Amino acid sequence: MNLDFSVVPPFAGALAIGALWTILITALAGAISLIVGIGLALARIYAPGWIRALLAVPVFIILGTPLLLQLFLVYYGLSQLGLRLPAFFTGVVGLGLHYAVYNADILRAAILSVEQGQYEAGRALGFGRGATLRHFVLPQALYRALPQIGNNILVLLKDSVLVSAIGIMELVLSAQLAISRTFRPFEFYISVAAIFYLINLALEWALARITRRTEAMR
Amino acid sequence: MMTPMVELKGLRKVFGRLEVLRGIDMSVDKGQILSLIGPSGSGKSTLLRSVNLLETPTGGEVWLDGTRVNADLKGLAYERHVNGLRREMQMVFQQFNLFPHLTVMQNLTIGPMKLLGLSKAEAEARGEELLCKVGLAEKALAYPARLSGGQKQRVAIARALAMRPKVMLFDEVTSALDPELVDEVNAVMKDLAAEHITMLIVTHEMRFAAEVTDWAVFMDEGMVVEEGPPDRLFSDPEHPRTRSFLRKHLGA
User: Fold this and answer.
1) Cross-referenced CDD domains, in alphabetical order (chain A) (predicted)?
2) CATH topology of domain A20-172
3) Does residue B137 sit within a domain?
4) CB distance B249 to B205 below 8 Å
């Protein structure tokens, strides 16, 4: 077996750009998953029955089918019907919505775990329903859900490779391009794994920092 | 005749088939300090929570300083009306209900800043003054989790006062406290009583009620059984139910 990592540096630029795309996709999809997740969680608790019933349909589809299939369906399926969405948009929104459903479950439980007394305290001060949620209930729910939401973002980072299947030049696809030129899969896949590991470490570090800051509140 | 600060007319509250308040008439003058006593389940907490509409009355009227609190409005207009009036009557809860994600100072400033339009500096000046008053100036930057129960309750009182309310509602504020922490909270309330802020106090502590309040109302089974100046009510109750309740509670 002869491993030769000297084949990698000439492609460092391409890999770096791929890594940046991966980070960008994760950040954007993560933000979508959080914002839509909060909206879904609130809707599931407070919205009238017919809205909840309406939302149950996409949630059921997202939970019940593979993410890769969902991306194919939206990107290739809709383009056959004449609706050609940009790949980057499809990938980011698809990933984001997929994880929004998982985050919504966590956030729903976290919102319900905030004591009724907190809501009453906000209302008794004179805050309206929405302001009480925004200032008092939601922040506490987010702090409580943070460890699990963080986990989901870490999984999202790894699942972001799936968007390569609709042609987005993220980290893995950049490596595959390099492999097709050099025929050195092992060296490049190991390098990509190392880069993923580093991004993962950075994310975990950031999450631990935020968690530490919330510890004073417990 | 002076308008009463708080007035209840025929207040009724029904939970399902349970009638918790069966027609309460009550009037509290400006500056009056009133205690509500009675066995648990007598409806005194529900009555207090009906004043600021944390419980929606089933029937009857709630008035604050000449304004109908449970006004005949619908939807958003009703919401706005109630939110506005709640700012003028602040409640202190048995379980403190401080906001754990905010520091002590932020607990005190968020209401005045977001609801009364005070600047951060103004709200913090007000907050500092109140923290001094309750003896917790050095805790401004602490989170509630770092405070004892008595300290939490004193912060909760300061948070309520920061809204400069017309009326303070106290809902068994020392019931969740360890006995040795009760006095520090009572002391703060005595100071307030000396300033003649209008207060409605639901309490189990007869000695405190006798010492601090100038009108005591004894409730049982959702009705006012007897009321009067506390020294008269406690030493010479007229109604047998008041007598048996006081025998149990003053003996202890």
Assistant:
1) TM_PBP2 (cd06261)
2) MetI-like fold (1.10.3720)
3) yes
4) no
d(CA A39, CA B103): 27
> Which distant-in-sequence residues (6+ apart) come within 8 Å of B72 by Cβ?
none
Asked, for residue B180, whether it belongs to a domain, the answer is no
d(CA B63, CA A78): 61
- As for the ipTM of the complex, it is 0.93
Best CA proximity match to B52, nearest among B95, B23, B20, B11: B11
Chain A residues in contact with B97 (beta carbon < 8 A): 115, 117-118, 120-121
**CB atoms closer than 10 angstroms to residue A155:** 12
Q: How many domains does chain B have?
A: 1
Per the structure, the complete domain to which residue B104 belongs is given by 95-164
What does the pLDDT read at residue A60?
Answer: 93
Residue B122 falls within a domain, yes or no?
Answer: yes
Collapsed DSSP state (helix, strand, coil) of residue B231:
helix
B73-80: list long-range contacts, CB under 8 Å, 24+ apart. Answer: B79/A128, B79/A129, B80/A128
Cβ–Cβ gap A124/B99 under 8 Å: no
Q: How many residues does chain B have?
A: 252
Query: In 3D, which of A126, A117, A116, A131 has the Cα closest to residue B69?
Result: A126
| Whether the Cβ atoms of residue B140 and residue B103 lie closer than 8 Å to each other | yes
**What would the pLDDT profile of B160-178 be if each residue is shown by its tens digit?**
999 999 999 999 999 999 9
